Amino acid sequence: MNHWLHGMFTALVTPFEGGRVDHASLERLVAWQIAQGTDGLVVCSAAGEFPTLTPEERRDVLATVRRAAGRHFPVVAACGTNATAATLAEIALAERVGASAILLRMPYYSRPTQAGLIAHAAAAAQATTLEIVLDNDPDRCGVELSCETLEQLSGHANIVGILERRGDLSRCDRIARVRDRRFMRLTGAADAIPSYFLAGGCGAVTAVGNLVPHWLFRLGSAMRSELYGQAQMLQRRLAPVNAALVREPEPVLIKQALSLLHPGVRPDCRLPLTPAGEDAARLMEEVIEDFPRPPLAAASGHRQAVGARA
To answer: How far apart are alpha carbons 40 and 190 in whole angstroms?
Structure first.
């Protein structure tokens, strides 16, 4: 089965200027992502600084991305707070604005039991007709969806997959055993993409896709075509930037690099994120020194620019 959620998705940043969302830069970044071959965009994730966005800003960011991407391009809305009622309101708004699917965050800080996670995910599934990918991020949320919990959620047909933030290959196999191989497994570990594909994964959601969507498109294509030597080469090219990015909280260095690669896009983050330290910033500049600096495409409305992939 080749589902539309199979592929390499970029966890899109939210550009700011003067403390406000920079919608013009956001539109240009969306057009460039599509021209470079990304399979889809994830909006208002951690890379998009969702905790610092108001509900109105999240709505407007999603609306801008949907408008710039066109009606049919995959745009996934990351939704979820540590209150299930507020999460359901976010999902309803995302559906009205035109999200293609929901990436459902688990409740953070409150550390619910597995029973609480089941109730949270079930409530979300019952509240929308959109397909849902569960976001398993124990480092940020303090809790992990167990494989048994995934099995108990199997009665909800629109819960179609899981994003595993860690590149745990043995867990990837265990998930397939308790569900079935049609239950999609994506990874958020950009340093483990080829291995995760070989373990049964079908794609990735990464912040590094903001910088090199074309490399990631080629990496995913190589793995699907069993061109493992080419995939290994591309993964090695990604290694220095992946290593540099962990020196600051996401998306501080992503934004700094974007500001150098794409004139007009500012590196601004919202507090409590602060500008990159001098050493980390210098390293990032060195890492991206040879990255292509194409002019940003005009907002295209859809994927007609995909010919630029080659």
So the answer is: 16
Q: Alpha-carbon distance 244 to 242, whole Å?
A: 6
Lowest mean pLDDT among 103-112, 262-271, 300-309: 300-309
Complete domains list, the chain, with CATH: 7-229 (3.20.20.70)
pLDDT for the residue numbered 301: 39
What DSSP designation does 126 have? H
Residues paired with 135 in a beta bridge: 105, 163
Q: Which pLDDT tens digit goes with each residue over 276-305? A: 999 999 999 999 987 867 664 443 433 433
pLDDT surpassing 80 at residue 6: yes
**Could you read off the pLDDT of 92-106 as tens digits, one per residue?**
999 999 999 999 999
> What b/e readout covers 156-192, taking b as 16+ CB neighbours within 10 angstroms?
eeebbbbbbbbbbbebbeebbeebeeebbbbbbbbbb
- Count Cα neighbours of 135 within 13 Å in the Cβ-side half-sphere: 28
Residue of 201, 191, 195 whose CA lies nearest to 164: 201
C-alpha–C-alpha distance, residues 182 and 1, integer Å: 7
| Whole-prediction pTM | 0.92
What whole-number distance in Å separates Cα of residue 98 and Cα of residue 70? 10
Name the β-bridge partners of 133.
Answer: 103, 161
Helix (H), strand (E), coil (C) string for 225-270: CCCHHHHHHHHHHHHHHHHHHCCCCCCHHHHHHHHHHCCCCCCCCC
Return the ∠ at Cα 241 (arms to 266 and 232), rounded to 5°: 140
Tokens of 292: 């292509």
CA atoms of 94 and 98, how far apart (whole Å) = 6
Burial of 234: CB neighbours in 10 Å, binned 0-12, 13-18, 19+: buried
Mean pLDDT across 111-128: 97
E strand or H helix that includes residue 286 = helix 278-287
